[in-house]
Specification:
By secondary structure, the protein is mainly beta. It contains three helices and 42 strands. Among the domains are: 90 residues, no CATH class; 89 residues; 146 residues, no CATH class. The strands form two sheets. The protein has a 26-stranded antiparallel beta barrel. Strands 1, 2, 3, 4, 5, 6, 7, 8, 9, 10, 11, 12, 13 and 14 form a 14-stranded antiparallel beta sheet that branches. The two termini are 51 Å apart. The N terminus is likely disordered.
Length: 737
């Protein structure tokens, strides 16, 4: 049988091309397609052989073969390919191995390759030569008159040429009768050469540059990749204006006993100066950053973090990316045991940084009951209990310190039911008792506070489907609309003891978002007060199909709080506005490569726009991505936020296979200030990659902070290891290599 031309896929199995009596090999399905839709295929049903030519793509499981001509025998499970042949095999770990040659015989059942004149490899190592016998089942490749290189180009500049090369299953390469070449020049002869193709065990990395607050600098590290479970590094930094910095870094995996990483860093800082609070900076400065997480037994979890700093500015001055992500680092130790309906936990939070405001928990024990049915009744019960000794420490620059023992128990019953098949109603009622000992540091007596709460949530859900709705412009294949209105009423009468008579450990803090309406989500235990509010929300979702999968097209969520109770309660923390700000969150994704998001926060009572945020993400091709957005914000003094009209942009572009560019900018229109600029240009230099980074940061009255840095990475050197982009030389460069 002959088919030409062909553009549709041909599904080839032993039973498909042969006699009905021939069983198909299990999981031996091969899919053949034409590279350009103009190929030819012949199928011989007597021999179970298919021949395709003029550009062919063959897919089998995780392997993809391309060639000008192929001959497939379903009985033997082999593919004989000719003409610019490439085979890409995806490994179980997610990596890929690529073979190239002019003539290749591929056993797709046992994953074996035989080739004359070939190239194969997986970054950072590549092998080429006259003949190859390879198989991914036994993970052994043997090549003759071959070479190995880290240059992923046709004419490698550095290579080792050998009479034979063997790659074994433990990722070890052995070369017999080998010569090292730089260009065309032989520089070293090896009777036998052995090299690990895994991560290199030891390597150096460095990033030199200049920063106006550091002077000329070199951020260096000596990396030790002991095995898959342990990586360490020694950071060796020098700053011409500040002095030397040193510190060990480690990352480990103890199996069921957990995974952890950490760094100890010390610098002898000669510059001096003052900290955020006006105090002097010490000459000997350092920090400890450590975290560990373990799941030693089923449903039992352990977590520990240590964030010690010698002074308030150490992370800001030398690890500014980390500082921007977390300005108030927390040290804690936590253990948690989960059961089907209950959770028991113990948490200890000490104050390890004396300058930092902290609520210490020494310790606090929690025991919670998940929402569960009470026998065979329609009622459901949930609880939350905690007890511990708490101490508020204001830090070195505050005289406010107080402590007390606190025990808190909360219990709630709900009665969920559904009406008409679409209307869900969940009434609830609960109570809370919180006991306080006499407070040390404040003139507050021991108290027992009672709080009652009740309310109900009413939600509905309706949907409509338009299967025939199609649009090429919006990339629509059918349309489904889902609408979910919700009304959540919460009533909390004035508690038996009001908040101003209690020590404030877990207190309400100002926020740009609305507080949770119901308990136990609202966990500002010591600030709980009178509340009579209705949370109104409306969620709309439009979905469509793209590539056979359901994808969101438009999502819109609207919500606000309506305070229906008394707004004049004495000493109450209740807002005096009948309505809270109204919120609108919009997401639009007309294409898989384009998305738009929008947030609006509007003062309903004052008729004023309080916040207006926009975000656009555009990725038209794999080599280019651009994110641009803005944030308009009316200042909130309680949060330390000033009026702002911020614009930002971030772009990444791979110019070609060798050059790539990343850049971002942040502009504050209110002050006309370009606050931050970041530019990184990276280049692939065959066996290594390099990058040049320029960073500019306008700190207002504190002046301009600027940095020029250079980074480089050997492709064959250890990557990642103990050093992520918050530690080590790459902490100024980001993800560039």
């Amino acid at each position: 049988m002959r088919l030409t031309p062909w553009g549709l896929a041909i599904l080839l199995t032993a039973s498909a091309v042969g006699q009905e009596a021939l069983p198909a090999k299990e999981d031996s399905e091969v899919v053949i397609t034409s590279a350009d839709g103009m190929g030819e295929v012949e199928i011989d049903r007597k021999t179970n052989i298919a021949t395709a030519r003029n550009g062919v793509v063959v897919r089998f499981k995780t392997a993809v073969l391309t060639a000008q001509r192929v001959r497939i025998s379903s009985d033997a499970g082999t593919i004989e390919a000719e003409g610019d042949v490439s085979i890409q095999e995806t490994r179980p770990d997610g990596g890929a191995v690529l073979w190239r040659g002019e003539q290749v015989k591929y056993d797709y059942i046992n994953r074996r390759v035989e080739s004359e004149g070939f190239r194969f490899g997986s970054p950072p190592y590549f092998v080429g030569g006259e003949s190859l016998r390879a198989g991914s089942t036994n993970q052994v490749q043997t090549a003759t008159n071959a070479f190995v290189t880290t240059d992923d180009v046709a004419e490698p500049g550095i290579r080792i040429k050998a009479r034979s090369l063997t790659v074994t299953d433990n990722k070890t390469l052995t070369a017999q009768d080998a010569t090292a070449f730089v260009g065309p020049v032989p520089v070293m002869y090896y009777p036998k050469f052995t090299e690990s193709l895994g991560e290199r065990r030891f390597s150096w990395s460095a990033s030199p540059g200049y920063r106006n607050t550091w002077g000329a600098f070199v951020l260096g590290s000596y990396n030790q990749n002991w095995n898959e479970s342990l990586q360490t590094a020694l950071e060796l930094d020098f700053y011409s204006r500040r002095g030397p910095g040193i510190g060990p870094t480690g990352k480990y995996d103890l199996g069921q006993w957990g995974q952890g990483e950490g760094q100890v860093y010390y610098i002898n800082d000669r510059l001096g100066g003052t900290n955020f609070f006006g105090g002097p900076l010490p000459e000997n400065r350092g920090r400890v950053n450590y975290s560990h997480f373990a799941n030693p037994y089923q449903d039992f979890y352990l977590k520990g973090t240590v964030r010690y700093q010698s002074d308030p500015n150490i992370v800001h001055d030398f690890f500014d990316n980390e500082y921007r992500s977390d300005t108030q680092p927390l040290t804690l130790f936590e253990a948690q045991q989960l059961w089907k309906n209950y959770t028991l936990g113990v948490i200890t939070v000490p104050q390890v940084n004396s300058f930092q405001q902290q609520v210490e928990r020494l310790p606090e024990v929690t025991f919670s009951g998940n929402r569960q049915q009470i026998g065979k009744t329609p009622l459901y019960y949930e609880s939350q209990n905690r007890a511990g000794y708490l101490e508020f420490r204001g830090g070195d620059y505050s005289s406010t310190n107080y402590s007390a023992f606190r025990g808190d128990t909360f219990h709630q019953v709900t009665l969920p039911y559904t009406a008409f098949g679409w209307l869900n109603v969940i009434p609830r009622a609960g109570g809370r008792l919180t006991a306080y000992s006499e407070t040390t540091g404040l003139p507050l007596e021991a108290q027992n506070r009672w709080i009652f709460n009740t309310g109900a949530e009413v939600t509905g859900k309706a949907s409509a489907l338009w299967q025939n709705t199609k649009s090429g412009f919006w990339d629509l294949e059918g349309l489904r609309h889902v609408i979910q209105p919700s009304v959540n009423y919460a009533y909390v009468p004035t508690p038996s003891v009001q908040p101003f008579l209690l020590p404030q450990f877990d207190r309400r803090t100002p926020s740009l978002e609305l507080d949770p309406v119901e308990f136990p989500d609202n966990n500002s235990i010591d600030s709980l007060d009178y509340r009579n509010v209705i949370r109104l929300s409306l969620f709309n979702l439009l979905q469509t199909k793209r590539s056979g999968n359901v994808k969101p097209f438009v999502a819109l969520n609207l919500y606000t709080d309506w305070n229906v109770g008394d707004l004049q309660i004495p000493n109450s923390q209740l807002t005096n506005s009948r309505f809270s700000d109204g919120y609108s969150r919009l997401m639009l994704q007309p294409r898989d490569w384009f998305a738009y998001g929008n947030l609006v926060r509007y003062d309903i009572v004052g008729s004023q726009m309080k916040e207006f945020d926009n975000l656009v993400q555009w990725t038209p091709v794999e080599a280019f991505s651009w994110t641009v957005g803005n944030r308009y914000l009316v200042g909130i003094p309680a949060l330390g936020l000033l009026d702002s009209s911020l614009f930002y942009s971030g772009m990444g572009y791979r110019l070609n296979e060798n050059w790539s560019l990343r850049m971002s900018q942040q502009f504050e229109a209110k002050t006309g200030t370009m606050q931050t600029q970041y530019y990184t240009l990276s280049r692939d230099f065959r066996s290594w990659v390099g990058a040049l980074t320029v960073r500019l940061q306008d700190n207002g009255v504190n002046g301009l902070n600027w940095t020029v840095g250079v980074g480089f990475q050997l492709k064959a050197a250890a990557r990642g290891g103990a050093l992520d982009n918050d530690f080590g030389p790459n902490r100024l460069m980001g993800y560039w290599n």
